Amino acid sequence: VFPAMRVSYKQIRAILLETENLSSITQVAKINREIAKILKAEYGASWELITKELNDIAAYEAEFSANLLQDSTTEKVIVPTSAAVEAYAAKELMSLQSGERSRVDVWSAFVSQNIDSSVSTVNNIVKAAYVRGDTVRQASTAVSNALDGTLRRNAETLARTGVQHYANAARKAMYEANLDVIDSWYFSATLDNLTSMVCAGLDGKRWTEQKNVRWPPLHFNCRSAVIGLTKGQKYPDGSRAAIGAGENYDKGDVYRGRKDLTSGNFKITQARPTTSYEDFLRRQPKDFQESVLGVGKAKLFREGLP
């Protein structure tokens, strides 16, 4: 998406600079129609490529998860075809919470909204420049700032969320093909200080009925997963990484990569399958807990509130 944004900006900038000034609303409307065509062509094509990659990820994830499931049962595990997984992921609804609002739709609708929102943002910048009497260079700079700022962040957020949606949809498709093998479903959140409260609260929860399962992604940038368990399993096999506070952790630190391990700000350990997010958080220092919960809730948490 980022290269498509750069290509789009070069074309939009050329259109604006060809205009000596934004002299009439008719002229602005014409420019905005051209901008819409550019963004829908360049930006839209990039999302088509992303969706193709997501389908590849989904096919891989379905096979990988089926192999893991096969290791825990003597029953024959069915691996759905790539075409079946692709069709399943395309129609699977995403229910994403953002503050007090939630939106439920399929992936393609989220992509269409992102493209339309980007077009609307750039068009509004040009209209605002006309109303204020800005020069075309000022309008061009404002468009560049939007593409490098808000629109870039929105695109990255949607792409990351798409990866989780397709991965979880692939697992779900595989589980539905093997309901005679699945005994329950287990919610697994990420053990670090970036996990949302909704995912942290669900971590370790197990459902015996599929209709009750909360399937990720539950919000934008969600990193949680639902894992199918076979008869006799209460937890997934193996361990999982936990990124907790290191000896040099400072309040507000966020794990960004290996440099944060070598500096001692964070440390990675392997948590047992029975370790919930709550267990993990109780083992962390006060500052780390406050970075997750806030000062007031962290105090209540240390006093014993779940």
Description of the molecule:
This protein is α+β, with helices and mostly antiparallel strands and 306 residues long. It has helices at 2-18, 25-70, 82-91, 107-132, 136-148, 150-176, 197-202, 259-262, 277-282, 286-293, 295-302, and strands spanning 94-98, 101-105, 182-188, 206-207, 225-230, 240-245, 266-271. It has a three-stranded antiparallel β-sheet, with helices on one face. The chain has a two-stranded antiparallel sheet with strand order 1-2. A hairpin with a 2-residue loop joins strand 1 and strand 2 (101-105). The longest helix has 46 residues, at 25-70. The radius of gyration is 23 Å and the shape is globular. The protein starts with a helix and ends with a helix. 32% of the residues are buried.
Task: Summarize it.
The protein has helices spanning 2-18, 25-70, 82-91, 107-132, 136-148, 150-176, 197-202, 259-262, 277-282, 286-293, 295-302; strands at 94-98, 101-105, 182-188, 206-207, 225-230, 240-245, 266-271. It is of the alpha+beta class and 306 residues long.
Strand order of the largest sheet: 4-3-5
Q: What is the 3D shape? A: globular
Task: Please describe the biggest sheet, giving its number of strands, its sense, and whether it closes into a barrel.
Answer: 3 strands, antiparallel
Number of helical elements: 11
Q: Total number of β-strand segments?
A: 7
SSE run: HHHEEHHHEHEEEHEHHH
Task: Using the CA coordinates, give the radius of gyration.
Answer: 23 Å
Structural class given helices, strands, pairing? alpha+beta
* Share of residues in helices: 55-70%
